[in-house]
Amino acid sequence: MSTWNPRAASVVAVLLLFLAGCTGAPGGVTLAAASGPVQDITVAAIPASDLAGLYVAQDQGLFARQGLHVTITKIPSSQAVIAAQLSGHVDISAGSYVPYIAAQAAGARFRILAEASTLQPDSRALVVGANSGITSLADLVGKKIGVNGTNSIGTLLISALLEENGISPGKVKFVTDNAGFPAMPGQLERGEWQAAFLAEPYVTIAGEQDGEQILADFDQGATVSFPIDGYVATQGWARQHPKAAAAFVRAIEQGQAIAASDPTAARTAIGKADQLSPEVTGVMILPDYPVGPVDEERIQREAAVMLQFGTLGRRYAAEIDQGTLVRSMTGPAPAR
What we know:
The chain is α/β, with parallel strands linked by helices. 37% of the residues lie in helices and 19% in strands.
């Protein structure tokens, strides 16, 4: 796993102000090639079961069959890699759409190449310690909730859940863990926060290692079957390297299809990528793995919920209501 080294990114100063915490770049990342066909691709990925399609494609040689050499660098959240992408240090990110939609609204230009996952029951959950005494969402008022990224899918899902249960998100305090999901069950057990937003397999790990419990599942209300993660590149990179982008999408679509139809292959690939035991991968909950072209309506739904629950300001309402913001991220696709 690569180390994570903070670095300045002056070319995205405005976006960094808009997206608090987006200041990191992964150490050891190969620079994107300046011109010509790209065979080496760096993918910055969160550790989560949502990216089984990526890990299957790597594990089964699907990228290699497309003439690509893919290096996967682990990151705590997709928000943490935006600056590195905009400055040319990362080719593709694999993680939450939320910070990319926010960055697009703020003036950046990204393209969603492929979808990675949508919610299934308990694939992402709000978790509390075994002895926390917290038994309802109302008990969270005044408490700290750990998330893997500021202004992230975690803060969005938690905000939607609280609002729908009559609790203002402003009554809880979100605390970002810069180490991401792998460190968060331990932090919760040590009492750094009173609840944590976790993805599988870390929901399972939290339960098995420390007896931590699911307080609420996010696959409900406004966020049932919600789009979670995808594969995103800058529009500049996709235009400059259309053949590499198209080859990557072909391999990912094959990986997604395998992950969707063969849970054992998905579990095996996730376990290998994240060094997990069979005891964890054998029982963890898998999300849905969409196959085929990016579904604009599905991504539009996420943008609408971001607006509804305040992750995006009302000044973006027209772009979201008209669908132009999401459309600017989903097409036209690179030539195949």
